[in-house]
Amino acid sequence: MSCCDEGCCGEGVDFTKTPIAELYGSNSFSNAMMRERLPKSIYKEIVAVQNGEKELTLEVAEVVAVAMRDWAIEKGASHYTHWFHPLTGLTAEKHDAFISPTGDGKVLMEFSGKELIKGEPDASSFPSGGLRATFEARGYTAWDVTSPAFLKQDKTGTTLCIPTAFISYYGQALDKKVPLLKSIDALSKQAVRVLRALGHEGSKRVFTTVGPEQEYFLVDKEFYDQRPDLILTGRTVFGALPAKGQEMEDHYFGAIKERVADFMRELNYELWKVGIPAKTQHNEVAPNQFEIAPIYANSSAAVDANQMVMETLRSVARRHGMEALLHEKPFAGVNGSGKHNNWSMATDDGINLLEPGANPESNARFLLFAAAVVEAVDRYALLIRSSTATSANEFRLGANEAPPAIISVFFGSPLTEILDNIAEGKAGGKTESDARIKIGVSSLPALPKDVSDRNRTSPFAFTGNKFEFRMVGSSQSIATPNTYLNVAVAQVLSEYAEKLEKSSKGDASSNKNDAIQNIIKESYKAHKKVIFNGNGYSDEWVHEAERRGLPNVKSAPDALSVLTRSETVSLFEAHQVLTKEELESRYHIYLEKYSKQINIEAGTIIDLARRYIFPAATSYAGALAGDAAALASIGANNASQAKRAKRIADLSTELYDETAKLETVLAEAQGIEDPFAQAKAYNEKVKADMDAVRSKVDALEKLVAKASWPFPGYEELLFKL
Ligand code: ADP
Ligand code: MG
Predict the structure, then answer these.
(1) What is the pTM of this model?
(2) Residues 118 and 243 in one domain
(3) Max CA-CA distance within the chain?
(4) 208 CB less than 6 Å from ligand 1?
(5) Which atom of ligand 1 is nearest to the CA of 295?
(6) 682 CB under 6 A from ligand 1?
(7) Residues with Cβ within 8 Å of residue 249, at least 6 apart in sequence
(8) Residue 596 scores a pLDDT above 70
(9) Residue 621 and residue 570 in one domain
């Protein structure tokens, strides 16, 4: 039965009857919608603000507010909310009704420009890392014009959501959006400088484009509800692997089960309504694991859209009697979930700066911008790694699974060869062959027609006309990884711009060509160590990376510690993205979040071990011992029962002891004041003891009768849908 049969679609859209082109974007106050509903001059103003050419004025906001309100009310909205990204990594909303009493017992539906551009949620309960003392709890949300407002609809009603940035009374960033927007500006500024120096006058602004591929698991709600660990922590803290895992490789790109297809159909419709161009979907590698990817957008809108994708995944799954798991590692022994962050830079006049293109002019531009990304990833590897440092993602990175915690770049052999040739002074590369596009000016080498081969094991892969950052965890906000990436690339581009600007001072073009070649050559020589086109999952790579001096930071707390280093602070301050104080506060928030998450998991393990597993196992052992005695009393062979009862009883005792040990270690970690030392204690000591408890429980699961085990196991969670 689909959700519409149950009457829970709220807004009454019958997906089967409404043409998709009509449905698409119907709940998004997109530019198309604004063009339709705003006076021409106001629409133009908004586009100028989106492009960073103008500041938003209250007069313009007033007009937009009225149009937005009328649109939302026509669609059945009663409330609006400033929708923002606090440092929890989730989104937050505080709903306000449009109503304004008229004094005679009636109301008007009102929404002013001021209410559109600025909100004031009570901010005291959001993490601020000490930036905002509780006596000064004021925080402001400010409209982000670069991401469209949208309507959230469910059976409880319709709410107008206005994407906003969240700042403190003193202007410090309290969210993930402010630094992202600043990093986009920073990158734009430097990229435009480089373009100008290359003689390209047409672009006024550069945007970063992002297309995240979202992985997730689905489990039947009935089984989910019986697993307190899934409910409390998002992952299974116990679970013995069944006889079958993912080794048959029969799930990846397999035929989608009807129940899942039905869910995906509704998910797509819900996303299309709010203007999120969900495009591809398929089965992933692990059983019951799936992926959805929308078409890329500017990074601010993409960050918002991805939060909506995650939220919608959850709500639609529930309507279909399932639970969507976004945790990075819900199950041990099969693949975890990531989020491939496809990233590029595009100009306002429509050029993808990482598009190799067909002519020599674009070759030079492409090679320069691509070299800048490679250099940025090498120089700021730790920072980029830190953007994915969460307790859940730690189960993926550097564990026995993809990708490793080592940052490397896959550039593909054709491109690497070209850079090699440039570095060796063989600018023209190999002799021209048919496979290569003709080289024309600047003695830069010809580019092969198909520059990208495939590599699925690299954490940072060039895939044709974009880079794909694959370390990002499935449940993470993509704001932070993109912010760090943008800042790192902005820095390298600023240095390139400097050199190019100097070179063009003298006699024009030959100098410039030399300068371009030199920049690429020097950069590549210094940073080619980060390029690795082989198998990133192999042990050899770990050794090779070590030999090359590439960092391999496995633990999240260690990765996070880069945030307060002086070179990080200078980088962020130089581009005015985050101050030292803001970086420190973030560092503390992330460390605390890390510790809290493991604390919850450890608590859950202790609780489940004591109240579920131990009683089940010991009473089963008791019953077996009883059986053994009964069998003995009739002279039957009772050896297997007795042996098994003893084994289970022994394991239960070991479980009891390990649980007590975990409890002690946990109490020690809880008592540590310093946030870094505390996170390290959780990382090194608590997690080890959690594993020790788990190994006892999983061994017991293999011995205790299915009917006596207190919750569903991996076979139900992973294979039944
Ligand atoms: P694959 O990774 O299998 O090659 P696709 O080519 O479909 O998959 O791309 C995956 C994601 O990359 C999609 O979300 C797509 O929109 C996005 N993408 C494509 N081009 C760009 C770009 N220039 N900038 C950012 N993301 C992009
Ligand atoms: Mg991909």
Answers:
(1) 0.93
(2) no
(3) 107
(4) no
(5) 16
(6) no
(7) 285
(8) yes
(9) no
